[in-house]
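Our working data are protein records whose layout never changes between entries. The record below serves as our worked example for the rest of this section:
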Amino acid sequence: MSASALFGTYARSNLNIDHGEGVWLITDDGRRFLDCGSGIAVNALGHCHPHLVSALKAQADKLWHVSNLHPIAGQERLGKRLSEATFADRVFFSNSGAEAMEAAIKTARRYHYDRGHPDRFHIVTFEGAFHGRTIATIAAGGQAKYLEGFGPKAPGFDQVPVGDLEALKKVVGPHTAAIAIEPVQGEGGIREIPTEFLRQLRQLCDDEGILLIFDEIQTGVGRTGKLFAHEWSGVSPDIMAIAKGIGGGFPLGACLATEEAAAGMVPGTHGTTFGGNPLAMAVGNAVLDIILEDGFLEEVQAKGLSFKQKLAGLVDGHPRVLDSVRGTGLMLGLKCVVPVADFVGAAREAGLLAVPAGDNVVRIMPPLTISEDEISEAVARLEAAAQSLEQKLTLEGAAE
């Protein structure tokens, strides 16, 4: 077999996935895997959802790309629906989450520039955060493993520990433009930010005349049982980055903002060639058709609670392998005792796909359309994974 022509940036599995059906992925040799990763929280409505497939096919027969030099009807519709369902007045469409965060950062900096404070460009973020892979967003995340080898860290980003209000107050100053946070840290290990801390951030931003940015790229579009995770806290941001679930598998991101926060983003300040193209807009609108149906989010809440309870039982039964369960809705995590890579591998052997995260946590993020029967099947496969690792630990102990 010849060497791959691709960049070697991914440690890929050996699964050649041929097609998907709902919460299932099927390999080219016929094996079926229950997908509890959803393409890293992307396939919110599962694989090949008929409404999304129909919308994409219909649009593909009409128009693919015209650029943002012209009005795009799907943008106007999706933007209006997002603004009506959220705090936002304005929406900028992008192709990805990192681009949505870049737009959020630029919007916050431009806000202060237009008010005569170009020196207010620093964004305060939090340890354990993940905001993307661009030069700016790896600086925003601040994690050494993503910064290493890419030159000096881009200036203008300050990190503090999550929940440490006093440390935050010491960093915030005349150079601060905004505070950016994920309501639940995904890559950081499914770590929920306490409601009280989010409220304190809102108050601090109001007191200091700075903007609050929520990164809901992974938490948004129903993942936690609300349209956006910050709704649980009652705290609204000034700017929000979204992606992943809003496209249901099609590349789509967006930066949402209040009228005041977005006022400086006038023609020439920002742009994108492909962002908001007709294909993406058709799919995004189709996703909202389903997510905003009466009762859909309530079902996600109920299924999330059921899944979490079952996972808690799994943890109780396998203390040598699993430590605890965390998360909300269908954004769940299992903190492992064994190395997380071992558990992800064992789950794959048992026919279930999951995603590793920081803090030795495995993410359990199935499509929001998963059924109760499929939740039970997922737990059975995770049980098999835990048992196989326990047997391995027992054999290793006997050999010592």
In short: DSSP finds 13 helices and 17 strands in the chain. The chain has a mean pLDDT of 97. The longest helix spans residues 372-399. The longest strand covers residues 322-328.
